[in-house]
């Protein structure tokens, strides 16, 4: 495939003489999006799935996805078993089930030596997350976690700028994720929403585990600083519900750097307001998912700079590798997902080919990042429970 | 003066057969700005001042301001005494001294029956603020406080929209004031900055009393809800200093509505980021001082709306009264200051003429608003001192 | 595939029991982008190609694209011949060669009954374009043309708004396409640029035929008015070159509506400034490719409105059909390309299944639109040659 | 007055030991705005006026403006006579009458040795403009013309950047002025609009002479290149009217640099869209009156830069001289007007004091600039009359 930069990586991987085979575990729009992104990466074919435990719906899904009927399973356990035994079985699976099934599904495939890319939050319990780290290690499998925001090309550039000292010593970190889709009182009853408010499936949190964890990961990814402590208030701002729809937090990062974190699904007029701001002794950077192609960089005492994708507007060649579309034509989140699936493919191919991928090739989040996310969710929950005490993450 | 709308108010005031006479108490850029705005309002002439206790600098100021030398005083006490005795003495004074002098200066003029427009924070101590409320009442004088952000025409429109139910029941209130001028380590030593970090002059806080109080007033003014409780962390993010340069707060408004409030002077790339966001059950509004002519209104389920000054873009006639400039030509903060001085002039003229101005004429903040601001500053300080406990305001 | 809206269309097409088979005629980044978009649409597999007449490069392309070596041809004539004879031959081809080959390549496939999606400009000569209309008609084949800008969901919404009278009677139409990639003097020598400045390949124009024609199509697509006359000046603004890099035009649409059209590749700071503005007696709409998800709608006397993709921000359900990504997560041009390939797939499947697709299903531009584009290019060239006379299109 | 930078200029001018005395010739909102700006500059008092030839309205205006009744004249001839004879007569006048009176009014005051600041367009006829140049020269008076857009601090910065080679050799110049206030069909009948469409008062053009001339001046001021030729089409886009409401032009500047110029009052959603774009061999600059505090600078191959007022964001100290408001608080057009009146005051004081102001002090447009504007209007009219021929300016 002639897309720029990416061919540099094909050479070392004999496995890229073919596309890799991906299985889908979980249904709905999220898996559709990810499957599309996997296709976009040009390195994956979707060949099997466990989209529903209901045989009729599984069959329908097979037809919708153009899958062989006998590779549309009604359980992930069966899928792992059968696919592992096939010569043309899946090389890897994506897991996009409700949260409470992530652990069991992942274990089933790891046990069969099948690589995994799992949705966030990794699990509902810290202990399950730890178990997955261990299982991944034991199996030797690749285990990616879909903190997809870290796969935007400009976000990689932001991280590199901060690391290079462009904004000096970090003084403050602010991140928020504001959506508005839960504004109507009755939206909580919609079938694809219901499980997100059910503690048995969503875990101890709803909004925090869904989007707060994206915010926390992004802040740490770009700043290069680990979040160490959190103080949280959870709120139900709209119609009554069993879990929070909004949370306000103050945070402490390595070295005592203070910050704030907010997430809500009830901010009318905010479609996808994931906004990161990092301020330092010599400058600041700002990014907003709603305007995802632009990175604002301020170096104090100079004009503001707008860095954007496309050679010649401030991106390094290393990060341009993640760009598919010619300068001047907009990209969106599907390309960030595509980058995640490209890096996942590289890691999978490297493992199959017995190659050790240089660490700076791949920014893809891994199981350990997923586990840190679970710890953040747990700590914020504990803080909220205690009336807003500082809790170590 | 033919500016539209405003002439409607001239009729009832015999005192507007002449311009009113304003005295300036305090020097520096802030008083220059306000004097200019007073002139802009077309209802004031600046005729006297106590700009410096140093006789030489007072004389220079007189020349700079084209004032008669004998009306440039070296103390506000003398100024109050002499001006009150003159037939053509000042009708009112603006007070723009460092914070710790506000109380004494205001008392001096109130005691002589001279109306006052005082800078925020009103005082450094709650007890002093209470004393000013009492003194104002006893004197019968007009006592305005310069929470100027509430005098932007679109901010008045925002308040009216919220009051009319355009965004439904309020669910969350977020406000922040982010500046960057204190980013360089050495800026704290500049003469016009020094007093802002000196507890003897600035009071218990620096950043909170300077810009945090603007944020708190604006949130309450537009939402129509009083802030009841606050939880605060103060930070020194940049070079060491005796008072905070940054503060993060969570807040509770009437009816339990939760919110956040942030202020900092170390956010590189933020020149004047006073940003208000109020989210309700049916919509939201957002405003940013850096883009002060636009008010974003979302009514959930409809396209976002941008409301702007200039007939025909969503402003009511009542608020267009505050607009001077033809549609299509930008206004800035000087016009908000001008509105404050226009409303102050109306209140002063009404008092002189024995007219009772209908309450909906004037949105100008008064001494009671100033006292509430002092209580907010005190509560946030107490919360910070206690490690972040909720403190009643 | 579970992406919303799109499954509604699967039912009537037995051919969608499988993915359709696409062949690629032409190489380079443009075909890579389109192939990716075809995959994104989930209705196409890329199975064959004529990417280069050089056998070695054809082989490399086959490997890059994961194609069977025997389906990577060195001529489109051979490809048409062989693929037409295969049971699993391509259902359709995309043509992305340099302009001067479009006609011959398209004829080769039409003659074999293979559907075609051809890049713009359709041809370099009006006579060739007419020949393609005739050949398409005779063959009964589907013939799409890649004016992809008309496939953004918000552009469809813009068209519907104008048609519904939201802006009243149209008074003015302005469109411009401003890029900056040709700013450096030496860029014209780059291999992928060279043919664009070679009259033998690019035709009588370079910038006009490449991006001016996008602008002209978009203006007509959204306004619903045909462009009737044009007056043009061509310029070489940068380094000397055999064809124009910039053109300024004034235009006349049906009913005498006046307009302007500009295109240039030398506007530093403009990455992809395709900007459309249509003003009417009661309002106006504005769109900019650099901010492609937002459509500005003004209804005179009301606040400006920002219409965006995602249910509940002003898009109709009919246009939401073209949206893949959940509200709040950005889309880019790949999704517009995907929409083009989805509509092309529907048209191809309908033909194969003997179904007549209702005309309002498909906004995809067709061969007749392509021919109108060629006529526009020719007319603007004639006008330029004549020193700026009005020329009928 | 303590506003920064400006005091540097007080020293050399003995006349600034007092404020200068300004007379107003012409009524309505425009003169109100300018009078306010003159007050804002802190160097002018408004002391006399000829606001109406109707004695009753003149009296009302005197009251509105707080002027002495005996200095509110019903003719400018009388005003010139009487004021010239007074010891405390006006130092200068602003002329804001309808266009056709500019010449006679200006002559009346020049003949009495009174300095003039005249609205644009300077006159309706080229011959009258030439006569004013001559009269100004003979009288030795200061003669400013209110091309106020050139008095924004960031516009001065733009000019300096272009002059310093920041964007290389200029290749293209685009400017447009788009308003929407004339969209409603009945607005042309409003009393303050009527004269603008009456050829006897407005001259041969309406929109071009009102706002097109602003656009033409701005393009030349910032680029430093004179506009040499123009080709124009005038349009009546809305309700029928005797003069154009819209014009589209192509232009040629010194050295053959091509450009475009558009103006219209019927672009709904455009409040004050005066937009300038200059593209060169190494970069480009863009400015929009609707976002007047930001100047976009692109240097090709680098991130876009946003230059803004306020020390440390890319403005030079020389241009910061024109800034009144602290960094972070927005300015608008009143400050540009204020800058014009400041520079006019300096020129007037310099003349009175017999000082020759260094030429780089004052960017204020002069009578020669006004005459060039008249020539531009005439040339565009001739071009339109001839069906769009190139006409030399």
Structure write-up:
Four copies of one chain form a homotetramer. With 393 residues, chain A is α/β, with parallel strands linked by helices. Chain A folds into two domains: 6-149 and 342-362, NAD(P)-binding Rossmann-like Domain (Rossmann fold), CATH 3.40.50; 153-291 and 293-323 and 372-392, Dihydrodipicolinate Reductase, domain 2 (2-Layer Sandwich), CATH 3.30.360. Chain A is built from twelve helices and 14 strands. The first copy, chain A, has helices at residues 28-40, 55-65, 76-85, 102-110, 126-139, 153-163, 191-194, 199-202, 207-223, 317-320, 333-353, 367-385, and strands spanning 20-25, 44-50, 92-95, 115-118, 143-145, 170-178, 227-235, 246-253, 258-264, 273-280, 283-288, 294-299, 304-308, 391-392. In chain A, helix 1 (28-40) packs across helix 11 (333-353) and helix 4 packs parallel to helix 5. Chain A starts with 19 loop residues before the first strand and ends with a strand. Residues 1-7 of chain A have low confidence and may be disordered. Chains A and C meet through helix 1, helix 2 and helix 11 of A and helix 1, helix 2 and helix 11 of C.
